[in-house]
Amino acid sequence: MTQTRYYRTRSPEPEKEKTGGGGGTAMRVIVPLQGVVQGRGGLVLGSIIPCALFYFLQFYLKRNRDDPDDKNESNSTSQNPTTRSPSSEHLTELPGLTRSLSRALLSPRNSGPVSISARVSGIVKGGDSPYYMGLKRVKEDPYDELDNPNGVIQLGLAENKLSLDLVKDWLAENAREAILGNGKELSVSGIAPYQPFDGLMEFKVAVAGFMSQVMENAVSFNPSQMVLTAGATPAIEILSFCLADTGNAFLVPTPYYPGFDRDVKWRTGVEIIHVPCRSAENFHLSIAALDRSFNQAKKRGLKVRGVIISNPSNPVGNLLNRETLYSLLDFAREKNIHIISNEILAGSTHGNEEFVSMAEIVDQEDTDRKRVHIVYGLSKDLSLPGFQVGVIYTFNEDVLAAARKLSRFSATSAPTQCLLISMLSDTKFVRTFITTNRERLQRMYVQLVAGLEKMGIKSIKSSGGFYCWADMSGFISSYSEKGEVELWDKLLNIGKVNVTPGSCCHCIEPGWFRFCFATLTEKDIPVVMERIQKVLKPVN
Amino acid sequence: MAIEIEQPRVGLSKVAVSKTHGEDSPYFAGWKAYDENPYHETSNQSGVIQMGLAENQVSFDLLEKYLEEHSEASSWGKGAPGFRENALFQDYHGLKSFRQAMANFMEQIRGGRAKFDPDRIVLTAGATAANELLTFILADPGDALLIPTPYYPGFDRDLRWRTSVNIVPIHCGSSNNFQITPEAMEAAYQSAESMNLKVRGILITNPSNPLGATIQRSALEQILDFAVNKNIHLVSDEIYSGSTFSSSEFISIAEILETRGYKDAERVHIVYSLSKDLGLPGFRVGTIYSYNDQVVTTARRMSSFTLISSQTQHLLACMLSNKEFSENYIKTNRERLSKRYDMIIKGLKKAGIECLKGNAGLFCWMNLSPLLEKPMRESELALWKVILNEVKLNISPGSSCHCSEPGWFRVCFANMSEQTLEIALERIHKFMEQRKRN
Predict the structure, then answer these.
(1) Where do the domains of chain B lie, and which CATH numbers do they carry?
(2) Which segments cross the bilayer (chain A) (predicted)?
């Protein structure tokens, strides 16, 4: 089935032409000339070799650009398009070319405004995907039962307000001492000076313990294998920098969290190859699909460095079962690639399915441990995204060493660490929080799913996360991304409900939407249902 | 494509295995020696005294006093406002109250001679992140930034490692007190051109690290003119702006822009942090202040990789918006740093050592070139080793700061008690006496 790519017209390529950062006809003319002028081995070789290179490059580029299954190209949705097409990746491997390119094409000095780098100039024009636009609309006009009953209700942000009261109460009682004293005398000199950038050991111990707890003590985590970062976002980016070179790629099952496009690709120049999951398999990961994508990439000369899975997954809310995880490890071993397992929602499971961490799968003695890296964080499971605590957990000494050094660019704040050491060491509080939180998530999930079902909207059975993944394909005007976005728009502007359309998550089937329920109260659910009902007009 | 799939070892990226983190240089080797044998006033009096870390510990008591008297800064009691907005999904704009407090603080430091708009402030987890972020934004891989020498050794890592951007030095020398000249800037630019590197900007640190001196107004004007002339960016790292010994001697690039009616401002970006002036490096608080809208927008989005904890923002917003506290802090901190500086200069003079005349920062720039066997880098490193292993002081050799003249060393004085500083000065004195005798 073909998807009309509604946003394809907003691809960054026109911008690239202007800034001269990526492909462009002018570049192709200048390149061989430069080669002639600077070529070693005389004028003849100096012209033949660069020209040969040039023609080879041209042929290569033409092949890639004409690829019909263009999903695997630099998946620049309009939110954060990288201006680097695959062609520019190859250019950077031929050192003389990019430099002469940028010098030749940029406007002469002393004229026009001072330019910013090509790698980001596309971003300034982008950033208007439904994902971000919806968030903006809610911010401008947020629903409030009393003060703003006609405002936009937020179902597009995977944050958890359901158990915030528990955290709030704990902080009200304990925060002050926790930040400064931890029972000892008030001491700024304890938290003020330079600390190890990858986190205080005491804090790592506390986080390791917490991770174990949320995963039902099925596995224990060694604090010495952790690097703490200012949120999970830099954790993913740092791993991307460590495991792949510019121009390499990761396989990522779709639909996936829209932020990956930024976290994995933006500054690293690494590509994401979509591995489509389908509703027929309830969007479960298929190793066969991974294999297919890997081979396709190989044919195109893209070096795959790893697979990134999210477990529980976002936006579907699936758990990967033990068997799949073992098969995934086999696959990674066979291809000699890495696995990044994003387990940031491990503590936000609800329902009866068992959560299995990649850490459990990797055997004690297994040398394959070196290819497994786990990402975690406190934003989801502890409802504290503002505190910026992310975790890289790896069995690979080299990755550990590199990530430790890179954490200097994204370090967690010392007073926050002290505060959380206290909170996480309060085992009674943590136990109560995890249990209560799970109950509340389950309750809200059930209610939301039931409400949608009454309107004929079915969801995939989810066991984790703050959302449900619902099929609204029966209600879109055309079975395409365009139809889906139209419905999203109606839901936002007429229904005043912000949900996330599947195309933002690169879902291969149009019509799927993510509804986050953890920012709602039980009273909000009927209001949400009413508003959705208003918008829906069944289409054959 | 060097790594074969048959090999059992799963490979890492070039970034991961690169040595650009620079941790093998003497700058960091000295730290290792300190870590292995750290001086302690009572328990390890023969240990290595750390004089290679630019940390400000002279005003902790002021911070402690504030936090003791203002519990609302570190708590979320029934009365404390805005908890929900604090802990919840705080986006990359950061707390408005904190940005406002930072803008005010920056204005106070500059004696009100420049104004800062809180909406032009982008928050990052430390100045390290701010500098890297700006480099990503202003330059492409393979491009170059011009930086006057001697410069902070961390720049080699922060500006180049993940960004693949080059640094081309602007050489400054002792003949004119290491001031930046138009000739030196032009020479650096030409040097970059000859290497086929596109220059995207010039980055200055004002007050300078490691010189411990502010850049003069005329030089700032020339630097800005140079940037305009070449149509490149100007990044001014003003991380030590609050650590000047007198309030009048520091001139910010913001003031220069103010007098020019903000013409050409869109190429200027200021980096600031609370790590030095407020002595809070553990809090991870840095900012980018840019007069360029595109840069502000982009930097804001990119700051997703390096956000400041909302709890920390809340705490500092309370503290910095307390005018009484901030005015007193700035004033007292200056006085104490000035006193320390006088102490070390006198002590070094007594030992027969001259320093560059400084007026800011947490360190002094010491001239040991008369002690070098030969005016060469190797002799400087040999001397550095002797000072580290025999005198047991970790100081930073000028070569790690890319100083073109061997024999200069950066000596930090604010990261220890006065007593420890006395001990360090005694050791230096003894060392110099011994050398005279030999």
Answers:
(1) 26-61+334-437 (3.90.1150.10), 75-325 (3.40.640.10)
(2) 42-61
